[in-house]
């Protein structure tokens, strides 16, 4: 979060201040006049980034707008909504790690995320500009089959706690044997990649138990099953959530939500050309490194991910007749992939940042969200 207050732009010619009045005082006077005009039209906020985090904080800012205290939000992203990493995300929404552990603040974050999903669904039904047949939410279980011996060991810990499995609000996780996984997802082929056994002296109880289970041929955990999670189509979800932002602005009266297809190369330049703003919220993901004022202060570790979108070619024959004879029927669909942490935290982080911005009090944020400020410049 960046709070920026800059003096007004200067003309090309320099001019000496009148006697008894410094140029600094004149700048403050001009700045105060600009703020007075701004106060009459409501609080103004700039959000840089049209992904999960940016649209979520915009929604929470506009949720506090009223007719007497309007809020104007301008969201800046050259690629539009979901044009960056958020649009390429897998869309798995649940509060668990790949090993089945409940994430830090996972239950709270999941509840906030479900609130925004509900708001997006309401907006999609009410907005004539959105295709009502373009589904973006699937409420079906998510399965994560074990791919390595290490994952089997991690799943054993979840199985051990089956009397009190990790819960994340409406979502909960359980373990499946290979037979149970195959029953839910016919055709699933599980061939865990063998890993070198640790030396006996370094083996923990978990390693020894996993080895004993495999040696005895007992059915160990072969997959995690997450119920209560969601699968989202990222771009469609973001469009619907932005529509919800616009609905909130229209309902409050005097408020606005504006999408600006521009790249932000400098916060100072943004303030000069589009401001003044009460606050500028940067939620630009990996692109934050291109913003000079904060690019070298935020500790980022970039990584490369892959999302495969598979579709049959148009001339390909239908496989449905053959599937009816060879594949047993299943009561529901299951999705295989790893967890997605950015999605589960987007609504929770957006709510906290919006509260801190509206109160002009950064101390309202958890210290974990401010660790980046402790990094040496």
From TrEMBL:
Domain FAD dependent oxidoreductase: 45-321
Keyword Membrane: yes
Keyword Transmembrane helix: yes
Superkingdom of source: Eukaryota
InterPro entries: FAD-dep_OxRdtase, FAD/NAD-bd_sf
CC annotations in GO: cytoplasm
Disordered: region residues: 1-23
Pfam families (UniProt xref): DAO
Residue spans crossing the bilayer: 45-62
Keyword annotations from UniProtKB, A to Z: Membrane, Transmembrane, Transmembrane helix
UniProt-recorded name of the protein: FAD dependent oxidoreductase domain-containing protein
Organism annotation: [Myrmecia] bisecta
